[in-house]
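Forum > Structural Biology > Help requests

Title: Can anyone predict the 3D structure of RNase adapter RapZ?

Hi all, first post here. I have the sequence for RNase adapter RapZ but no way to get a structure on my laptop. I'd be grateful if someone could post the structure tokens.
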Amino acid sequence: MRILLISGISGSGKSVALNVVEDAGYYCVDNLPPSLLIDLVKTLESEGIKNAAMAIDSRSAHQLQSVADTVEKLRQLGHEVKILFLTASSETLIARFSETRRSHPLSHLLQAPNLPCTPLSLTECIDAERQLVSPLQFLGHVIDTSNLSANHLRNWIKDEICVEHASLILMFESFAFKVGVPLDVDFVFDVRILPNPHYDHALRPLTGRDQAVVDFLEAQAMAQDLYQDIRNFIDKWLPSFKQDNRSYLTIGIGCTGGQHRSVYMVEKLARHFQQSERVLIRHRQNH
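Reply #1:
Sure, ran it for you. Structure tokens for RNase adapter RapZ below:
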């Protein structure tokens, strides 16, 4: 059976992700206590279910330490298990809770330690939840949903569930430094030293996927040298990450606005590594 476990911080988009996989034909269960996971999988398997997704969150905090062992048992039974961990900056989460006017799930479960009758504030709930779900963060692939629209996240989740099983997924992600470095990247490369197409009025409205911008950067010797250095770094260390049994390796490429140089470099690197690796491409600024 193909099993997708979705976890993360409240407000980071778990419900959006679960809806996407349900629309893709997965049997979905929300807020599943981890202790029931193996029995549920056995039941679904007996009913002929091939794809299932379960959301596990901080409301089962006392059981989260056991998830790693449970996942390993499922894999030993022959199931393909993928884990997605969604997160976002505290500022983004506070804004989302303010927009929806919903209370944090832990606000009814936790109380201030020195004031037993006083619930935690929203910021305190977010901080507490980060600690509670931390055992899951390093089991799978982290997706930072800060500054992502719901539609953008839906597309990313669709890409995730369409990727066939591989020992390691190589992710290339462009971003804008003016927005901030994503939380989900393993390595960050800064391409702001390259000539900026933004200052050419004809190129300004285009992106790094447009041929005119590609031609502009291909003509820059510095751009080719930087591309080769990044490529050589990944070529050298990728085998070590595979030996470490990593499921994902995310390479972040950043420029000022996340529109021209970083997009160009991500696309160029992805084309090279697609010849031998399972590759996903993400552009955070939604080009």
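Residues 221-243 form the longest helix (23 residues). The CA atoms of residues 157 and 197 lie 31 Å apart.
Shout if anything looks off.
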